[in-house]
Design goal:
five-stranded antiparallel β-sheet; 29 helices; Beta-Lactamase; binds ligand C2E; Alpha-Beta Plaits; 4 domains; binds magnesium ion; alpha/beta
């Protein structure tokens, strides 16, 4: 049993001191009267006994009533015991007095006095001791049991009948007390539950994140939680005062928690009696805090008002919606924002007679800046570009960042395409001026594609057209601008078809490798054969790798394609004489894939080709990116035994530092060096590069030898070790190369002479 419940039960025992006192007085008086009437000594004994027992109980009752603190469980048990002892003694004395009186006297008046007083006291006890059934039952039996027995013992029919009636009365009184006990228990349990519920409700109310107040049907405040008063700087007295909504709102306005305009809205919503949500920003928009008010009418009248501080949420929402529409880095509008805006401007132009243009701006060499100086510098550069673009535009123009190094400008109210061209020119010039970023002087370029608006054109079409024009501008050599023309769409379309075809080509096995020999100039032997890609297109015929590789790179197909080429070339090399190696071209993207090393290892493993017979040709652009990483990969390949040649030297930066800084074994001088070789300057240059490379321990190859004169010129000073070109052989299919090599190998073995494979010997 809970402590509250047992305290309530003990309380009920001591609750009605009046009936106890009445019982004591009446029982003492009745005993006195019976003693007087009977004139017999023994009955007098009961008078002092009843007075003493009564006085002790009365004293206990008073002490209990005077107690201030709430009962502990132990104290409750002690009080119950005291009550029980007192009640039992008193009951026993009354019972004894009544039965003795009934047995000893024959006086009917005496009998009536004894029986009626005892009956009254039992009834009084039933109304008082119902809290503890065990006590009451014992008490009742002790008081009334002897009287029932004494009546029966008198033996006459009337007395026996009286005895039965009294026994029935005793039972009825016990039942009555049991009923009272049940009712009392129910009430106590319900009260306990209510108290617990009220406590929980109070805790919940004062710990909820929302402020809450509740108005009764008469418009007065019934509940206001702590959060509500705290949020609005109100005192908690309003509940005691039973304040009205208007009083509370006025107090809020006086405190400066809300503006009087908001106060009016809140009051009218409470009076309105409809469920509503209202957000106020108080005390003013600039330094405001946003409060969300929820008004909910109650069934029997009155209303509940919920209050929430939504300032942070609103700020976060505003930030998210800003992030969703603006580029975080440059704070320019983003793609989504731009598209919405442009659709709006196209639908409702400022001046219908005027033209507009969309300029797609793409930075040239931005990637190199990112790769060489790092992303933080790249970010600063993009911000600087955004600033320059902003400076150049008029208020009615609109610029956005489309991601990466792409920006888009919408130029409104222009008279002709020449105005757009003027802006494009200024953009290219201004963005190409030097930037100073973290003590680095950075130079980049910009290319611009322009699409002019025309009637009914959509934003998406404009963007697509400007993008096509940009593609053209880049193809035209970058650092320039280009207008969209209808033919561009066809070019783009044919590129799209090419991409589709390329995707299928690998699966359909339409690719083939041709091989072209590299000849050692001293020995005249074929040292290496370069694998060159060919695409046997069902409609276009043989497609050059120059058309395939850039597209495959853009599509990301180059990695799969490169893997196929590498494996195929390694397997083919296994069919050649042992002294001949294979050279495989790697595009930058393929070279920078994460698992390039394992790709090479795997190709060697499945073909069984010794690493020493594989040469990988990379171009300078492969060395430009991630210098340290590139260096590591090259070193690892070198450790594996694979040789690396630098292809097309002389077409790109031709940086001599690459030759020095990277572990390269071969330099292939591009055939463009041979142009005008008969004049002095290119020959001197070629020989200079060849000597330097040779001095650094690299072998030197010259590509594109077509004539005997060229061969003589480059081999004159002995620095060039190998040559490649149509003079020796054009690239030929694998079968042909196999025959050629095996034939020359056999001849060499039998005739012990060096064989130069020439175009004539192939023919
Ligand atoms: P490259 O690696 O410099 O290959 C040499 C190119 O010069 C070949 O063109 C070859 O046919 C051509 N050539 C060789 N000797 C002469 C000559 O005496 N005169 C003239 N005019 N040309 C000569 P091809 O096969 O059209 O390949 C062009 C480029 O495509 C290659 O230049 C290479 O960069 C790339 N490429 C070819 N195959 C692959 C490949 O499998 N993977 C990758 N990533 N690129 C490849
Ligand atoms: Mg090559
Ligand atoms: Mg080359």
């Amino acid at each position: 049993m809970s402590p509250i419940l047992s305290a309530a039960l003990i309380d009920s025992l001591f609750e009605a001191p009046g009936t106890v006192l009445t019982g004591i007085i009446f029982s003492a008086m009745a005993a006195t009267m019976t003693a007087l009437k009977m004139g017999q000594g023994p009955i007098w004994v009961f008078v002092p006994l009843l007075i003493v027992a009564g006085a002790v109980r009365a004293f206990d009752l008073r002490r209990y009533q005077a107690r201030k603190s709430t009962l502990t469980a132990e104290e409750a048990a002690q009080w119950q015991q005291r009550y029980q002892i007192g009640a039992m003694i008193q009951a026993a004395v009354i019972g004894l007095w009544c039965s003795v009186t009934l047995l000893v006297s024959d006086d009917a008046v005496v009998h009536m006095i004894a029986l009626s007083v005892t009956t009254g006291i039992v009834a009084g006890a039933a109304g008082r001791a119902y809290g503890r059934q065990s006590i009451f039952r014992l008490q009742a039996v002790l008081m009334f049991g002897p009287a029932v027995i004494a009546l029966a013992l008198r033996g006459t029919p009337y007395y026996i009948a009286m005895s039965v009636v009294c026994a029935a009365f005793l039972m009825a009184v016990m039942q009555l007390s049991a009923n009272l006990h049940r009712i009392f228990m129910r009430a106590v349990v319900a009260r306990e539950r209510e108290a617990a519920l009220a406590g929980q409700f109070d805790t919940a109310l004062n710990n909820m994140p929302h402020g809450l107040c509740m108005f009764r049907a008469d418009g007065r405040l019934a509940v206001m939680n702590h959060r509500f008063s705290e949020m609005l700087n109100l005192s908690d007295d309003f509940i005691q005062q039973g304040a009205r909504a208007a009083d509370i709102v006025n107090a809020c306005v006086v405190e400066g928690s809300i503006s009087s305009a908001s106060g009016n809205i809140i009051l009218s919503e409470i009076e309105n009696g409809e469920a509503r949500d209202v957000i106020t920003t108080d005390p003013d928009l600039a330094r405001g805090r946003s409060l969300s008010w929820t008004f909910q009418p109650m069934a029997g009248g009155g209303a509940v008002v919920l209050l929430e501080d939504v300032t942070e949420r609103r700020n976060a929402e505003a930030k998210i919606s800003h992030l969703a529409r603006y580029d975080e880095l440059t704070a320019l509008p983003n793609r989504v924002n731009f598209r919405d805006e442009i659709e709006r401007l196209l639908r409702f132009p400022h001046d219908a007679d005027q033209l507009s243009a969309l300029l797609f701006v793409d930075l040239d060499q931005f990637k190199q800046v990112n790769d060489t100086l790092g992303h933080p510098c790249g970010d600063q550069l993009l911000c600087a570009v955004a600033d320059r673009l902003r400076e150049m535009l008029r208020p009615e123009d609109f610029v956005a960042r489309f991601g990466g190094d792409e920006f888009v400008v919408f130029q409104q109210n222009i008279n002709s395409a020449e105005d757009a061209a003027g802006l494009a020119r200024r953009i290219v010039d201004h963005l190409s001026e030097r930037y100073k970023i973290d003590n680095h002087l950075v130079e980049i370029g910009a290319s611009v594609g322009i699409a002019m608006t025309s009637a009914g054109v959509s934003g998406d079409t404009l963007l697509k057209n400007a993008d096509m024009a940009l593609y053209r501008a880049k193809a035209d050599g970058r650092g320039t601008f280009c207008f969209f023309r209808e033919e561009l769409a066809q070019i783009v379309e044919s590129r799209r078809v090419l991409e589709l075809d390329l995707r299928k080509a690998l699966a359909n096995e339409e690719f083939e490798l041709f091989y072209q020999p590299l000849v050692n100039l001293k020995s005249g032997k074929v040292t290496t054969c370069e694998a060159l890609l060919r695409w046997n297109h069902p409609v276009r015929g043989t497609v050059s790798p120059i058309d395939i590789i850039p597209v495959a790179e853009d599509m990301g197909l180059i990695v799969d394609l490169g893997r196929w080429i590498l494996r195929k070339a390694c397997m083919e090399c296994m069919k050649w004489p042992e002294g001949v190696s294979v050279a495989v071209n790697f595009s930058p993207q393929q070279f920078h894939q994460r698992d390039v090393l394992s790709e090479v290892r795997y190709a060697l493993e499945i073909s069984g080709l010794p690493a020493q017979r594989l040469e990988i040709e990379i171009t300078e652009s492969s060395l430009l990116r991630n210098t340290q990483l590139t260096h590591d990969v090259l070193s690892q390949l070198r450790t594996l035994g694979v040789r690396i040649s630098l292809d097309d030297f002389g077409t790109g930066y031709s940086s001599l530092s690459y030759l020095h800084n990277f572990p390269l074994q071969k330099v292939k001088i591009d055939r463009s060096f041979l142009e005008g070789i008969d004049s002095d300057r290119p020959l001197t240059l070629l020989r200079g590069v060849a000597r330097l490379s040779a001095d650094l321990g690299m072998s030197v190859v010259v590509e594109g030898i077509e004539t005997n004169e060229q061969l003589e010129l480059i081999s004159a000073d002995g620095t060039v070790s190998e040559a490649q070109g149509y003079l020796f052989s054009r690239p030929v299919p694998a079968v042909r190369m196999r025959q050629l090599l095996n034939a020359s190998h056999g001849r060499r073995a039998s005739e012990d002479q060096l064989v130069v494979v020439t175009s004539r010997s192939i023919a």
